[in-house]
Amino acid sequence: MWQSILFFLCFVASRVISHNIKVQCDETDELPKTANYGSPSKVAGLKLELVTVRDKRKLNISWAINIDASIIHLRGTLVDLPMSTYICKYNPSFTEANLTGLEKEWFHTLVDVTYGSYITSVRNLPLSPLGSGSHTLTESIWIFPLTSPLTPRTSKTTWVHPKTQEDDPTVIKDYSQLTTIVIVGVVASLIILSSFIVIYKMFSLYLSFEVLPVAPMTPVSVVVVYPAETPAFQQAVVALAEFLQWHGGCRVAIDMWQQRKIAELGPLRWLTEQVKGADRVLIISPQGETPSSMLGHSTITMSPPQHSIPAAAGDLYPLILNMVASHARSASELAKFWVVQLHANKDKKSCVLLPELQTCKVFCLMKDLNRLCMNLHAQRKMGKKISSLLLKPEFFYSPDSTAKLREAIETLRAKKPGLSNGILNKDLC
After folding, report:
1. Which residues pair with 142 in a beta bridge?
2. Contact 368, 424 (CB under 8 A)
3. Residue 279 buriedness (CB in 10 A; 0-12 / 13-18 / 19+)
4. Whole-angstrom distance, CA of residue 361 vs CA of residue 324
5. What is the DSSP track for 74-140?
6. Do 222 and 86 contact (CB within 8 A), yes or no?
7. Using CB atoms within 10 A of its CB, is residue 99 exposed (0-12), middle (13-18) or buried (19+)?
8. 32: which DSSP letter?
9. Which of 37, 203, 341, 363 could cysteine-pair with 285, CB 3.0–4.6 Å?
10. How far is CA 40 from CA 25, 68, 259, 260, 292, in A?
11. CA–CA distances in Å: residue 388 to residues 61, 69, 147, 380, 394
12. pLDDT tens-digit profile of 246-289?
């Protein structure tokens, strides 16, 4: 009898402990890894709520994990906010816990916030392979500035007879000395501050880092459109989109990340809405010399598409070419469309562009990567005073953050004969 009771108590205790899975979220700046085989399912739910903890406002991010067969591949969860990224680990892991009978399990974390729009994306790690659909869940919340209530204050005023200061030469001398000290102090502070700024700018030139302006509260909105060619070409496009998203201070819209939205709206409506709301539209130039007539109309001649290339890619590229052609007479509207070449060719004159794209600004990667990022943020600086530009904070990205993009373009070049060796050795300029 007592053995049965002991077994029942042990069973109940194991059930309670099995559900006590803790989550630890740490800030990171590394790109997430993509699964080679097997990946966890999409996050089951996402909730955002503004809470107050010890007189401090925090954002409570809650997400749900599906308890299904794919849980064995789960290595963590990536939480992406506008200005920071967190990787959340589970202890113990789901494979060590007894979750029989559960459909999903909720977790949460708290992050510090100020005010503005907080667009939060959550996805399970490792990332799903390319072409398997979007596994990202995104929600947004607007946080208003914190206003403190006005509290009445009492003040006391002490009246001094004018004669005590008016006729006293000692007081006048003290005021004169104090004014001189204040003026000298302000001038000295400005000189020291200017010297630090000059030294900082000069010192940054000797580092192996590229300096870019910090992304504002709302990142630069960028749409990436590319032709449906080879899987290696698509991999290079994805590497560019991920670099701009994680290291370039941009919010990137690309068909591979929004396949469900394209299926709901259709390619034409989705592309029109994205272009209308975007700051810039990056059009990836075809790898081969494809005539404009073959891309700008409904009949597209290309190699048989691979299963990993979205079907919408073949529809979006002719649509964007027609859109550029319709804006050819308006320089202001045409300025939104930029061309990016992944040929890694230093001589832009040797690159053949489609007729519709010959009037657009052109960037060749990897040589023009830094210039591309600087131009994306240049419109944020227009109309500002010189002092605000000098004192504006900056952030750095190292050459290591471009490793995936550089490797993808090198692979693309290796599969395309005719490009000379050594072109990509000096990719940051």
Report:
1. 117
2. no
3. middle
4. 12
5. --EEEEE-SS-EEEEEEES-TTTS--TT-SEEEEEEEEE--SEEEEEEEEEESBPPTTS----EEEE
6. no
7. middle
8. P
9. 341
10. 18, 9, 19, 18, 42
11. 34, 54, 25, 12, 12
12. 888 899 999 989 989 999 999 999 999 999 999 999 999 887 65
Q: What one-character DSSP code corresponds to residue 204?
A: H
Residue 294: what pLDDT?
A: 41
| Tokens describing residue 421 | 């060796």
Helices 267-277 and 313-326 cross at an angle (nearest 10°) of: 50
Tell me the pLDDT tens digit for each residue of 364-394.
888 888 888 888 887 655 444 444 444 444 4
Cα separation, 357 vs 353, in Å, equals 6
* Distinct helix (H) and strand (E) counts, the chain: 12, 15
Q: Give the three-class secondary structure for 26.
A: strand
* Residue entry with tokens 């990536």: 78
What DSSP line would sit under 263-308, residue for residue?
HHH-HHHHHHHHHHH-SEEEEEPPSS---HHHHSSS----SPPPTT
Taking CA atoms, 9 is separated from 3, 97, 98, in Å, by 10, 18, 16
Residue pair 128/39 in contact by the 8 Å Cβ criterion: yes
CA atoms of 96 and 90, how far apart (whole Å): 11
Answer yes or no: are the C-beta atoms of 333 and 276 closer than 8 Å: no
Q: How far apart are CA 210 and CA 428, in angstroms?
A: 8
What average pLDDT does the structure give for the chain? 75
157 vs 25, 151, 154, 295, 299, CA distance in Å?
54, 19, 10, 80, 85
User: How many C-beta neighbours within 10 Å does residue 88 have?
Assistant: 20
**Residue type for 98, please?**
N
Helix axes 403-414, 231-246, angle to 10 degrees: 160
State pTM to two decimals.
0.44
Distances, alpha carbon 289 to alpha carbons 101, 134, 417, in Å: 57, 31, 13
